[in-house]
Amino acid sequence: MNMYIHQYELFKMHSDESIKDMFTQFTDITNNLKSLGKTYSNEEMVRKILQMVRKILQCLPKNKWGLKVTTIEEAQNLKKLELNDMLEKLLTHEIHLKEDKRESSK
Hints:
The chain is mainly alpha-helical. It has one domain (2-105). It contains 5 helices and no strands. The model has no long low-confidence stretch (mean pLDDT 78).
């Protein structure tokens, strides 16, 4: 369990990693913690989801994601933002980044 807690605390997105891969890795860590017997009350689950949202937003590389992170934080009430909604926003932004890169390389 200590290993997964350590992975969670040091979690960050790698520069060559996609949002989907990063999210999968993050989910695996949190699921492993849960499978080791860590149970949560409803209040703790709400707090944990909020921590996950903030954790994911904080780990994104600032040079590519800083503006999007700021936009999500300012436009959304993070306490009400569903994890899947945030993932959708990040995936959409990632697609736009790839399209911009392709257009600029032409």
